[in-house]
Design goal:
By secondary structure, the protein is mainly α. Helices cover 71% and strands 7% of the residues.
Amino acid sequence: MNAVTTSWPGLHVDRPSFSAVAESELDSVHRYLLFLTGNRAVAEDLTGETFEKAFRAWRRFDPGRGTPRVWLCRIARSTALDHFRAEERRRRREERYARGAPAVGEPELGPGALEAALARLSPAEREVVALRVLLELDGPTAARVLGISATACSTRLSRALKRLEEMMSDARD
């Protein structure tokens, strides 16, 4: 592992480089998050978010207080808990919306097909499409509105647009 020598007050410590730590611990952190979430796509998103946070905080990492793996796992756990809280808030919003939203029928062919396809998206998918496409918010801003990471926002938008494309293709057939 690449290391740089750092002088801490009264202590002389070899401090590994961030790239060396990231390379050696990436799989471990990903496995930890996969175990916590049970979902490969979410674990991948959270792993990226974890290492982004770790990179920003690297100058505050103190090797005298613990190993890089433990430090990264603490960041990963915090990131996962934030994700679970955001998903719970999203689920409650969707349930409130579903209780107040009228039932939607089968998609129409012709001029109303797009509207019908949009109505068949989940409330979370419609919300991200509305923010990014209709309101033209950039990714980080839409993510802040949704209370999710920019990566999760981008993933949600991509999946929603893919579903819309599939539904529109089916409506044409």
